[in-house]
Amino acid sequence: MERDDLIEYSLHAHHDEAKGKQIRQKIYKVTLLLTIVTVIEVFIGASIKQSSDWWTAVKVIFILLTLLKAGYIVMVFMHLGDERRYLRNVILIPYFIFVLYLIFIALYEGTAIGGVWDAMWQ
Amino acid sequence: MAGHSAQLDAKTLWGGKESPFQTSYGKLMMWFFLVSDALTFSGLLIAYGFTRHDAQDAWPIGEETFNSMPFLGHGYPLLYVALMTFILIVSSVTMVLAVEAGHRMDRKGVTKWMIATIIGGFFFLGSQAWEWSHFIHGSEFGKIELSDGSQAIVKGHFGEIQNFTVTKAGSEHKVGAVIKDDLMHQFQHAAEQGHIENGFIHLSDGAVAKINKAHDHDLKLIIKRDGNTYKVGGEEITGKKAENLYYEALYAGEKNRVIYGANMKQNEYGPQQYAQFFFFITGFHGFHVFSGVIINILILLGVLAGTYHKRGHYEMVEKTGLYWHFVDLVWVFVFTFFYLL
Lengths: 122, 341
Prior knowledge:
Chain A is mostly helical. Chain A contains three helices and no strands. Chain B folds into two domains: about 20-140 and about 275-340, Cytochrome c oxidase, subunit III, four-helix bundle (Four Helix Bundle (Hemerythrin (Met), subunit A)), CATH 1.20.120; about 145-260, no CATH class.
């Protein structure tokens, strides 16, 4: 039996040439941005040594730039920015809760255990 | 893209029949798979972070470890990985262009951009193979254990080995014979085994030969493990002093004073876990890229056969696109946390 109550959501994404042109323009802009960010990262990485006093600031900059890149990839390339808010939240909120917690606990513990090792060898 | 249903109110959306997410089943499941896969990679990178925080100063630094380019040699910190990142970003862009063409039912456009994406994927895989090979074979100097018990990695230009002149005959070599083949390999193998003493190499047939080698330039020792005299993060050891310390250790005739490259047991870059994380994280990511390329090829065949055109939409391209972008997304994080920081 042919069902007539199913909605074909796949067709929602269709668009015409005018809209397509607009979308492509956005894609090219994001490409340029991602490339520039990568070049900046490599430049900073190659010119500032880890022993430098600035290194903590550099680390923070690296992480922020990475999140910026990730944001553009997920929101524009993966079209998550165009999906409904509910879907976006279902996908993103678990990370804000679990991964941030895991990062905190693992790095904190790692440093503590490193300290124990050092104390044992002395 | 929920353009058609943006005006739906919450009551209609959550009242049944309509999907509250306004997406098809397949796309939603791809998203759920990516959520779980992303958690796997988060776990791996966080485990890396844990180990690194635990090891502190002994951990290798990306720009010291990855500073080579194909055909150009050493002295290009991080450039090669940046190039790999760029290749993957570009192939991500061609993928999103394929998806966009699909939304216009432009079959030619989809085909063109899918082929570009697959080529980009192969370029990335090739780059990774080169990187692995380079990582496993290691540098010409290796990591050396100095006389005070400290361990150091060595930077600089390795003077070429010209030949070995036999000074004591063995079962195959006569006195005065000059060996010119496979010098570097024999040299490194003998050094690892402790078969090099005071500038003379003990060959496998029992012969002893003098090593004729050009001088090294710009030598620099970077301490990676504390010894009695030299400490991690201490004064830089360069020039003549570095050369003396290095060859004193290398020519000591003791086993395991020098390590070249990396394997599952030891590596010249830093703690043992470093190479294991390198192999596992970049390997697991590379495996994702590999499967992504295979999936892209299958979808391209479907596009060529007209399967999706008949279906009335190119959502399959969009779904594999999601996976491909995810692979790019993971690499952005691997690039930062493994190579940059």
